[in-house]
Every structure is written in structure tokens, then in C-alpha cells.
Amino acid sequence: MKKIMILSVGLLCSCAYFNTFYNAQNYYRQGMKLVVNDTLKVDSEFFDKTIEKATAVIVKYPDSRYVDDALFMMGASYYYKGDYSRALEKLDFLCLNYPGSKFYDDALYYKGLAYYKQRKYGPAIIALQEAAGSKHYRIKAMIALSYVYFQQKDYASLAETIQKLLKERLDTKEKRWLLQLMGDAQYAQKLYTDALATFNELLSLVRLPEEQKKLKLKIAEIYLQMGEFSRCKDFLEGEHNPEFRSILGDLYTKLGNIKEAKEIYLEVAISTLNPDFAAQAFYKLAELYRNEDSLETAIAYYDSSMNRSVTGTYGVKAKKMADILRRLNTLTSETEKPDRSQFLLAEIYFVDLGEPEKAVVEYEKVYTDFPESKWAPKALYAHFWIARNIFKNDSLADLTASRILSRYPGSTYALSVKKVLEKKNGEELDE
Fold first, then answer.
1. What are the transmembrane regions (predicted)?
2. Residue 226 and residue 215: Cα distance in Å, rounded?
3. What would the pLDDT profile of 289-347 be if each residue is shown by its tens digit?
């Protein structure tokens, strides 16, 4: 009777043990159904329950032959939950204490992914390189390594790894990932001819319209970077998407065909349903009119840009530019203190608009038209400073310096010029 009771207790313990492990395994499998490309797409309780049951296996049955199974499921579950530190803790323990486990290579692979997520690229490379030595993880680990090398900007190792992978039997999705990485790396290195070939090859493998659009936009951008304006124009002519039309407008701007560029930007701004994109098109249109000094028209288009997207990037920039141009208009029509207005006009061109060429023209009007004004020496000094520090034109700088010293010898600006010239002469003597 006693033997029967002991046997019964043993059977009960065994059943409880197997049930706990089975439940952990079942929850893990359910959780993995929600994983796509090593990423959990929809949050769920399956991995929480996996951790709970796997912990029970380890705590209650530490001598079980399934401890390494439980450790791996815990580590992978923590990884998918985004708790990379705990994932590494469990996976490290598995690798250290169960080197013969059938989950050893799995643990190495997930360690590499967890380190990558933590941006610890050195340890990630070590783990993934070791995982790549296994038959099962060779391709996956090398693909993950490619992403690590890209983030590290180790383009030489990236190219070498991708070239090896492209000789393997890859599915279309894997090949697309690698070509995208390689194209982005080539573009980052300004290897535009190579990048163009890579993105065109990738384009032939892509079927979704949105992905095709992104690639075509990238190809158009590369043509522009290469200065291949005619090829870019031919590439974009048949495209009707507003984003493609906007790039075509940029292209016409570069080619100096402003009339065509204006028509395209206006067409895009009116036709697109995307408020941010409409704001961008109106902003570009306003910039063209501002460059022509058609300030009223420019202000109107800046206002249109702002109205399309008040808090968007271009809406905010448009409001700032419209305010600046309104100040310009006000100063241009100012009659009470024309010398002051003229100086402030030059300041706006230089400080607010970042246009030193136009600024010096306006500064020159101050000290030429109003030589007795208190603003004259200040304007002449501003001209000197721009000539010396921005234009790097020593002849012009010396000319404006001479004018300051001769016309306004007792001014603070003449004193400042003297100090600059003394420092310059001292440096030349030292050399």
C-alpha cells in the first residue's frame, strides 16, 4: 500500500511538471504566431504567461532536463516584450551553463538581437558571428549582422557580408532587405552610380505601390545629386504623384526654368489632399517669388502655406518668412527716418534672411545716401565685416576699412577696425 502511495505521488508530481512545461511551451508557440521578422506586431499576454510557467519549471524542478528549454523561452519572451536586459540575463545563463543545449545557437542569435536593440554593437557582432556558424541561423544571423554593420557605418564589412549573402539561396523578401541596406550605404558614401544600380535592381523586386513610390523618389534624388538633370526629368515625366511632381518642380528650379517650376508647384499645392505637402509646395512657390523681389505675391503664398499646415514644418517657416517680408515692406515705405529704415532693411537681409549679397547692397545705400547719419559708420563696418569674414575678399575688406578710418576716424567702428588690422598684421609677422 505504501509503495502504491509513493508511486501515486510520483505520478502526480510528474504530471504537474509536464503540465507546467507543456503550458509554457504552448503559450510560447501562441506568442510566436504574433511575431513577424523577429518583431512582435501585436502585444499580448502569451509571453507573460510563458515567463510565468517557465519560471515555475526552473524553480520547482531545477534538475529537470527541460530547464534549458525553459531558460530559452524566458529569454526569447523577454526579448519580444522589449526587456532586453532580462533577456540577456537568461540567455547568458543558458549559454554558460548549458553549452550542449539544442537551444545554444538560438540563444546566441537572440543575444545578438538583444544587444543590437540596446545599441551595443560590439557584443552583438560577437554573438551573431558565432550564431552564423550554425546551419540553422547562418542566413538570419548574417542578415542581422548586416544591420549592425550599417548602424556602425562599417560599410566595408557590410558590403562583404551582403556579397556573401547574395550568393546564398535567399527568398525575395530577404534579398529586398539586403539591397535596401546596400543602396542606403552606397548613398551615404556618395557612391551614387552604385546606389542607382542597386535601387533600380530593388525596384524590379518590389510590388507594393507605396514601396515603389519610395524607391522612385530615392532614384530621382540620386539623379539630382549626380547632376543628371535630363535623366531625372525623363524619369519623372510620366509620374503624376504630387511628390514626384514636386521633385520635377525642384529640377526645373535648378535648370532655371522658373515659369515651369511655378506652374508645377501651384498644381501640386492645389491638387494634393495632404496638408503638409500642400504647405511645402506653397512655400517653394513663395520662395521663387521672393527671389524675384515680388514681395506681395511671396507673402500671399507664404500665408497659403501657413494656412494649410499651421503647426507643420513648412507652415511654421512660412509664418516666419511672411512676418519678415511684411517688415521689409514697412521699412521700404518708411519716410520719417529713412536712414534708420535703410539700415534695418539691410539687417533683415543679413540676419533674418541670410542673404549677405543683398545686405551689402542695402548697407552701401546707408553710408552713401546718408553719410552724416549715425547709422552710416555702423553700416560701413557691417560691410567691412561681411567682406572679410563671409566673402573672404581681402581687397574689398581693405577698401571698406580705409573708408571707415578716413570718414569716421573717431568712431568706435574705426577703433574696432584698427584692432582687427593690428591683429591681422601681427599674425602675418608671426608667420
1. none
2. 16
3. 999 989 999 999 999 999 999 999 999 999 999 999 999 989 988 888 899 999 999 99
